[in-house]
Amino acid sequence: MKIKDIVNRDIVTLTNCEHEPIHIPGQIQPHGFLIGIDVEGKIEFCTKNSAEFVDVAYTEMLGKKFSDVFGQAGEKQLFEYINEDKIKDAFPLEMELNGKLFQISIHKSFDIYVLEAELLFSREKLADVYTQTIQFVNQMNNTRSLKDLCALVAEATREITGYDRVMIYRFDEQYNGEVFAESCREDLEPFLGLHYPHTDIPAQARELYIRNQLRLIVDIEYEPVPIFTIDDKEDKNLDLSLSILRSTSPIHVEYLKNMGVGATLTISLIHRDRLWGLIACHHYSKKNLSPEIRLAAKLQGQFITSQIDIRESNDENENARNTTLALEQLTSLEFPVLKQALMNIIEAPQLLQICNAAGVSIISRDKIYKNGLTPSDEEIIKLLDLIVDKKTNSTLVTNKVKNVFPDIELFDTAGILYHELGNSDHIIWFRPETVSEINWGGDPEKSIVKDSNGLHPRNSFNIWKQIVKNQSSSWKQYEIYAATQYAHALHTLLMVIMLSEEEEKYRTQSEILRETNSELENINWISTHDLQEPLRKIQLITSKMMSELDVISIESISYSLQRVLNSADRMRVLLEDLLKYTRIKNTRDTLQKIDLNHILKVTKEEMSEIISEGNAVIENENLPEVHAIGFLMRQLFSNIIQNSLKYASPERNCVIKITASQEPELVSYSDKIYCHWVRFSDNGIGFEQKYADSIFKVFTRLHNQQEYTGSGIGLALCKKIMQAVGGTIHAEGKTGIGTIITIYFPCDPLDTLL
């Protein structure tokens, strides 16, 4: 009978190292021995070290029946165990072989039963292991995130197994690994956060990790033990994919030696039929584990894999919930249906929160509204031109703009989420460049080194830093969905704004037409009454003087001429006020930011004499900046103050108090929305509230000409000024107490409304 070993002596090269046949090494680790029997009990394979354990050499075993070597009772016990319906890797067979107690792990490799025997361990304190596992489960229920759970598993696995270092190793899509969680001795340098290239665990090794979920190396310095067989078939071999004792690739062993590791335990983390990660345990001296501890450690891995979906869902759901909440808050906010609503929207913090962006820009009617960290207006316009020219869908999502538009440079921006809103309107969310510093455990480009002695794994594990630039963090699917949802809502809002503005335009035109008709009627009345009245007086006085030239005295002539002069002056004032009134047109396109404090100061200086003559006092708060026209505001303030001085009470000194809104605020009045108000309150004679509207009509007087001089145009002029700047005016009066005039200013597109 010819006997041969089945040691795989294929030379590993740079071209085949990723396909090294590690599942058929033909060798095992020496802390146990291996026997391979066929279904009839014939020993087909045996390791060289069998004599060290059972005092029977492999040459004496091969070709014999198991019962011939270990007795009929032993064979019966073996096949009863094989035929039992139980989890073999959880409960290895305990049996006596030639007077020694062994624990035997059994699996089937094609038509061969592989028996791996290790000397029976002293009984672990199973109660302690059970207690630790129960404590872990209780603690596990208190964690929500996957990272917290993995940190807990690393700590618990180290406590149960006693290894010096336990790492939870997570793979990315390309199977590059990251130390996701770690527990280690305090004197050891932590590996947490380090990355390792996919070449550290090649494809065939990952395949074995899926098939065999527990891998143990008891002593890195071991001498492999060859497996022998009867040389009765060509290429006769033994697949050790499910073996506990299988010898490890020499490249991997050298890799571990370079790390200074003495023993390892590796537990596969399989999720959705894919190798998600590993529990990698390192010890810095040799170390073996009992079956009970191995099982407890394996359970730790199953705790993780059973929770991956739940914990990742928890992590993502929490972020998605925050995004959804921001979207709900944003869509529920009440904005005035005006173009200024875009300023309110762009300043809303939820607009950034819905997709966790750093900046956002809304482009509507060739105007750019921005908030947060955004490119310049010129860069945004250039980006839009490129997006439109690309003629893709109405959306564009990328975390690396350079990949899409290589020639564009955007200030501190690497990722965009773009939506077309229709009618040449757009919205773009921005994310800055996230300069990623990936710490690799050695240069990933040098994972395999070739020298004169052959191939070797890298021997340097010094941290090698890789800097990744020109890209932002990736847009999550729920963020993209939330942005899409809001883009649709914003499109609807912009359509409503457009329709509302058209309606407002027609309504304004109707109001202007109605006001114009009313003005024409008043002017017609003026031409037939107010202007004719002083003319009649002039004509009457001059006619009387002409008829009495012979008898009229110098004093009488002087008196009559003074009356003529007064009538002419009265007519002049009427004509000047009428001219001022008719010259005021809709000037909203020329509105500017005006400081009302300056307007009031100039007005008080111009009116200082009349204010002093009337012993009047003007008290005022700090006034806001508004969207208006400077010279009209001076005329407005002057007319209102003159009105208060004119109608001051004879019983007390005139006091005028001027108050105002200090910050922009939405104020609803007369079915319109305004942002600022200024109030003039006096303690004059007042008026009855029923005349509150009529006092703003042209040439309307509540008192006769003899009591109070004036043309009756002052407050009408004030009303027209406020209409011209897009505001309005309102009066309140109480007879004998005083008058309150309130003016309302339109929203400035630059205002920030809370």
Give me a quick take on this structure.
The protein is of the alpha+beta class.
Characterize the structure shown.
There is one protein chain. By secondary structure, this protein is an alpha+beta fold. The chain has four domains: 117 residues, Beta-Lactamase (2-Layer Sandwich); 184 residues, 2-Layer Sandwich (Beta-Lactamase), CATH 3.30.450; 115 residues, Beta-Lactamase, CATH 3.30.450; 169 residues, 2-Layer Sandwich (Heat Shock Protein 90). The strands form eight sheets. Strands 1, 2, 3, 4, 5, 6, 7 and 12 form an eight-stranded antiparallel sheet that branches. A hairpin with a 2-residue loop joins strand 28 and strand 29. Helix 6 runs antiparallel to helix 9 and helix 15 packs antiparallel against helix 16. The longest helix has 52 residues. 33% of the residues are buried.
